User: Fold UDP-glucose 6-dehydrogenase from Halomonas korlensis.
Amino acid sequence: MKITIFGTGYVGLVTGTCLADVGHDVLCMDVDADKIARLRDGEIPIYEPGIESMVKSNVANGRLQFTTDPAEAVAFGTLQFIAVGTPPDEDGSADLQYVLAVADTIGRHMNEYKVVVDKSTVPVGTADRVHAAVANALEARGETIDFDVCSNPEFLKEGAAIEDFTYGARIVVGTDSERVKELMRECYSPYNRLHEKLMYMDVRSAELTKYAANAMLATKISFMNEIANLAERLGADVEQVRHGIGSDPRIGYQFIYPGCGYGGSCFPKDVQALARSAADVDYQAELLNAVESVNRRQKKNLFTKLSQVFDGDLTGKTIALWGLSFKPNTDDMRDAPSRTLMEAVWNAGGRVQAFDPQAMKECRRIYGERDDLTLVADRIQAVKGADALVICTEWKDFRTVDFEWLKSNLATPVIVDGRNLYDPQTVKRAGLLYYAMGRGDSL
Ligand code: UGA
Assistant:
């Protein structure tokens, strides 16, 4: 099957590469000529385990191609996936200019039936706007060519995107057209062998499903962070509570890890966008607003603890930081808790000495060279001469530590752990002060 993907960002590149890998002919289009040139050479603009070799092998066998030519892109696939960004507008709503620009491009160039597939995360009602944009562009040409628009949201986690694409629990397709259903079934048939994964629903329900899934997961996390904060104040251990409630299958163990707040390009943006959509239809989404504000507060929690350790004065202190990315296995620092922490430390007159297995280049890109930020080659160097250690990301490299060694290298024997990586008793036995999230030791 011939498939065009607009946008070679995270979602577009993973979708295009995976579809080529199962035998489809895929053409990825991007307006960024430099990015396309680098992709043709096998240079990958994102960090995602497994993607590089997959891109290279599918480029080599000719099934995955890249272009900057819109006419070529539109002519290529019967399915035209829109996978461009939807960054938040100033008021938190999703900015649809890139999505609508692609719709316009499709309308300008199409000469036969196409299915426009909304893959980007877009507010409910966007498919109608995409439909109108394509129709307007066709009308401007004086053409009447048949086309359909469907919604096909993605449920990929960064760091596990290929696995999620291949083995995901469901493939949601929002359409009321039998022709579209058939084409989408053909597209996804390689992933639909073990059991029926395709779920057809109306377009608006599909659009809302994407936001509802992310908002539900974000709600679980904020709920757990609230319980962690309570546990701290009530002298309980949230990790024991987590086991206690997760064992109930109605609750489940997944996405109830307390921590220093959720980050990334999805949860913060999508929860806000959904709350914004609610406000637009005169509904106050009280729960969504609370999920967001609990998260904002949680991201400040590490600094609050740190500041209490030093009686509110971080002037001249050096803070060792392990983990910059918003979660392991990615170099993505969008809305990462590490950023809230670093910025607060800098504002308080402290310095940061940081290590991350993947995100240091990204950190340098965001913050540039500055006197109060040193990026070091490994976790050991981050700790040397530091006044305290803060952990923001649960990279597996951080899971085991020689606590005796740590104590002898830190100027103040303090760990503030935003991910609850260690057994508090073991850390304390080594003579370190250990402040985790919701583990009994309130400062
Ligand atoms: C999320 C969803 O999990 C995907 O299903 C969805 O497709 C994607 O957004 C998207 O909309 O594109 P992602 O943002 O890559 O994926 O990362 P997650 O693994 O979901 O983690 C998000 C944040 O929640 C991280 O900061 C993580 O540390 C935090 N988290 C996660 C917790 O604090 N506790 C948990 O128990 C789980």
